[in-house]
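Hey, can you fold this one?
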Amino acid sequence: MRVLHIITGLGVGGAEQQLRLMLRHLPTDSDVVALTNAGTVAQGIAADGIRVTDLGMSGNRDLAALPRLVRIIRAGRYDVVHTHLYRACLYGRIAARMAGVRAVVATEHSLGDSQMEGRPLTAGVRALYLAGERLGRVTVAVSPAVGARLHRWGVPRQRIRVVPNGIEVERFRFDPVSRAHTRQHLRLPDGAFVVGGVGRLAAGKRFDVLLRAAAQLPDDVVVVLVGSGPEEPELRRLADGLGLGGRVRFVGESTHEESRGQGAGVPDLPSLLSAMDALASPSPEEAFGLALVEGLASGLPVLYASCPAVEGLDAAERSGAAYCPSDPDSFARALHGLRGDVPPHREAPAAVRHYSISRSAGQLMDVYASVAPGPTLEVTPR
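Sure. Predicted structure:
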């Protein structure tokens, strides 16, 4: 089965890294097109042996990109076109139809009640989304919460399939050696209680709540923020204003790849999670909560204001995860309660197996088979 994945960009981000990981586990002949910004993740996908094309789109209204995309689809003779993220879903669905491909799947990675991909939702955005959605066959939601939002928008229930994000569970297993090396790399004080925040440094993630909470806690509490984004300068100013300058580490973007030696660049995400003692997400509106699942896989206690991935589990399976209202006082109280209880060894709760990437790849193959009938393919983990 030949599949073309079309995504808005391939800089470091949750949807982008999820696409790379999924490609490693799908038994398909795949190519990738990035409408713009074929960055770090594009290089990784190409290194995995998958062809990546940068369409070089100059903006949302660069209509000249559409015929170029149509030509790529026609030349590739693809069985399925799979689109990711808002702009790619709109242009990709139109181009696929123009190229004669009707087996079109779209994944909705980041739809909240009031925002999409970190931007406020408007009536115009919603109308354009629904117009494009009708050109596809199936819309994949990364969580039941996203599926419910799509249905409230007007997407017919029979066109929605839930395929959760996945992780390579073993890659995130707690590593005490990596913990020691990474804490040294970040110049963390001995005995520091390290609270992590992972995600784009954007207003919707509310990392300001985490900083204000840390300001209420003893001096041994250090915050490590993993990611980059437009709010970084403001968060740095806030940290300084709260007197947290020496207790916050802005480490930048990190990938899921294995470290290429400590001391050079940003440690990989599994190493950073091993170095932490708790993971916090004050964001009140998430589509899935992938970073928190990765934290659970590392054996971390996690605090969340919104996490459909955890909320979708049975109560008995939510070991290590706790809801916390998105305000500084609540996070300060919850983190203070965790501060005195750092186990020497950490184990992942069994519930993270629900989000194995191999399992998600199998579910996605079922979606492909439903829109492009053909020989059944078995998913073989790589």
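The mean pLDDT is 89. Let me know if you want another pass with a different chain boundary.
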